Amino acid sequence: MKILSIDPAAPEAGDLGAAVDALRAGGLVAFPTETVYGLGANALDPAAVARIFAAKGRPEYNPIIVHAANTEAARELTSEWPLAAARLADAFWPGPLTLILPKAPHVLDALTAGLPNVALRVPAHPVAQALLAAAGLPLAAPSANRSTEVSPTTAEHVVRSLGEAVDVVVDGGPCPVGIESTVVSLASATPTILRPGSITQDDISAVIGVVLMAEGEKERPGAALPSPGQMDRHYAPRAELRLIDPERSGLVALLEAVPGLDAYLPVRIDGRTYDEKTAVLAYSSAEYPGARVVRMPQEAAGYATNLYAMLHELDAQGYQRILVERVPDEPEWAGVRDRLQRASQGSA
Ligand code: TXA
Ligand code: MG
């Protein structure tokens, strides 16, 4: 595996040579986008696309987003371009918005899991832009992590999750948005948000009018999903993640969330008390004696930027459970709420 360090403020096409060569040869290249790192391959090459599924351990019924250099290149991958697509592309591309549209005939079935629609995005990150322009190819790129793990927001996360399965990792520093793009289907009768993100329902409805918010779909192995990839236990850290109510007193919440906690620890270091195994992501100013408390930003964008990085760090440090205060029930928090909800699924 080769690592290319690229200045995100001034990416030089010349510095991306090894990445472009790998893509043209059917290889896998991880690269930064404004949301999370993507695991990219030539979207027109069936063998390259198959390597993405293998590297991620991704079930073949979960389709993959295709990244294009600009709106024109994205449109070539569609067979219909409704007014809503034109308006949303105009308003939000390049940016963290993915549109689901009827696919052009030449779009590989493997990319769409046999569905008639393709997911398209024009990323805004300067390194992603430079790579797409230099490669001159549409790039299939799901998040660059093993399936069901927390998405990577740094090159180091990619290396830790995928290792030698990747040919080139383009390191362009941490991703500024920090959670995956908002996914909007324009293939259904009414535009529908399949996955909330930093572009909110209000942002979208300001441009195209009514847009629905889909209920999370259950995972159904073996069948293409109506809004696929909305697998319940997704984005989960290794540690057990539980949501807790910030309005409870911190100690009560801690004891309720972790039966038996009072029995085995805490330890005292320098006059402070720690439970070596439990961390709390705190949005409020509640105290959690005995746990490692991480104070998260109080606005949604800052919280999103830090969330995955924090989960990766706590996993790396060996925490066994992460208690996360529920975030506000406001529209701008929908993306973070959705990821926390999914990450907590499967934790008994
Ligand atoms: O921010 C992002 O979207 C990142 C960066 C790398 O662009 N990509 C990403 O890809 O999160 P992935 O594959 O991890 O998530 C793609 C989401 C999944 O929920 C997938 O099921 C859905 O988009 N999707 C992809 N193709 C689809 C299709 N044809 N119809 C419906 N949903 C689709
Ligand atoms: Mg993913």
Concise summary:
This protein is α/β, with parallel strands linked by helices. The chain has helices at 17-24, 46-56, 71-75, 83-92, 109-112, 126-135, 155-162, 201-208, 250-257, 261-264, 300-316, 334-344; strands spanning 2-5, 29-32, 37-42, 65-67, 97-102, 117-121, 139-140, 168-171, 182-185, 192-195, 212-213, 240-244, 267-269, 272-282, 290-295, 321-325. The strands form two sheets. Strands 1-8-2-3-7-4-6-5-9-10-11 form an eleven-stranded mixed β-sheet, with helices on both faces.
Keywords:
binds magnesium ion, DHBP synthase, 11-stranded mixed sheet, alpha/beta, binds threonylcarbamoyladenylate, 5-stranded mixed sheet, globular, Rossmann fold, about 350 residues, 16 strands, 2 domains
List the helices and strands and how they pair.
Elements: E1 2-5, H1 17-24, E2 29-32, E3 37-42, H2 46-56, E4 65-67, H3 71-75, H4 83-92, E5 97-102, H5 109-112, E6 117-121, H6 126-135, E7 139-140, H7 155-162, E8 168-171, E9 182-185, E10 192-195, H8 201-208, E11 212-213, E12 240-244, H9 250-257, H10 261-264, E13 267-269, E14 272-282, E15 290-295, H11 300-316, E16 321-325, H12 334-344
The structure holds threonylcarbamoyladenylate (TXA) and magnesium ion.
Residues 33, 35-36, 38, 62-65, 98, 100, 112, 115, 117-119, 121, 141-143, 180-181, 183, 194-195, 227-230 line the site of threonylcarbamoyladenylate.
